[in-house]
Amino acid sequence: MEAAKIIWDCWQSGQKIKQLPNNILPKNRSEAYAIQSLFEKFSGKPVFGWKIAATSLDGQKHIGVSGPLAGRILHERVFTPNETLNFVANKMAVAEPEFAFNMGATLEPKNVEYTIEEVMNSVDSLHPSIEIPDSRFENFALVGENQLIADNACAHQFVIGPAMSKKWKLIDLSKHIVKISVLNGMTNEGVGSNVLGDPRIALTWLVNELSQNNITLFKGMIVSTGTCAKPIKIQKGDKITVDYGVLGTLSTSFN
């Protein structure tokens, strides 16, 4: 409880810490996810969904981990495309273009891994998503994956758009180009394969990561599967747009 409260208070205030006190450091992923689970209690609202951090080698190097991490998306941190987000003092100061799956069925923990087919048969719709991550640690690349999981896998703000056309089911998402642009600024381009080879594979990883840690993924939850392009630098006053080609666009702005 103490570790979760420290991180939660930092999240609300914008304060950064070097690390958690040694006596309450999570020793493994299970303990880290247990700390993370308390954010729902502090929030007072059901968890909106899940995110995946570090789905690419570059992303793993950036935050100093050996593989992907799962984090909870909180209701009060989710925005619609017509809302202006409060930039405040976001230290990471980047935006990430992502594919987000809306689950049409509940997937409970089990003893064997879920297959991609099982997971995709449980998906209701696909949505455009922009993640604006942040960490509560001064140097997030040095604290290690257990503390980063406790830190909700650097989850912060999310913009989730309406469901994409069902034509997405006929598209190879691993080869699908996604572009993120800052108005009057730069553009970063990537493809779906940047997230563990395919957004569908990333979603399956998330389902199995939760299952192995005795966590249920509930029907109606959104899973944002990681950035398809190099995260783009943002600052107060920016407007950014993600272009998914035939699958549509998504924009947001900051004040």
Give an overview in words.
The structure is a single chain. With 255 residues, the protein is of the alpha+beta class. It is built from seven helices and 13 strands. Strand 8 and strand 9 (187-191) form a beta hairpin. The chain is globular and about 50 Å long.
The structural domain count equals 1
**Radius of gyration (Å):** 17 Å
Shape: globular
> Helix coverage percent of residues?
10-25%
What letter string, H or E per element, gives the SSE order? Answer: HHHEHEEEEHEHEEEHEEEE
Q: What topology emerges from the helices and strands here?
A:
Blueprint: H1 2-13, H2 29-37, H3 39-43, E1 47-53, H4 57-63, E2 69-74, E3 78-79, E4 84-85, E5 94-103, H5 116-120, E6 123-132, H6 145-150, E7 157-160, E8 177-182, E9 187-191, H7 199-212, E10 222-227, E11 232-233, E12 239-243, E13 249-254
Parallel strand pairs: 1-10, 3-7, 4-13
Antiparallel strand pairs: 1-2, 5-6, 5-10, 5-11, 6-7, 8-9, 8-12, 12-13
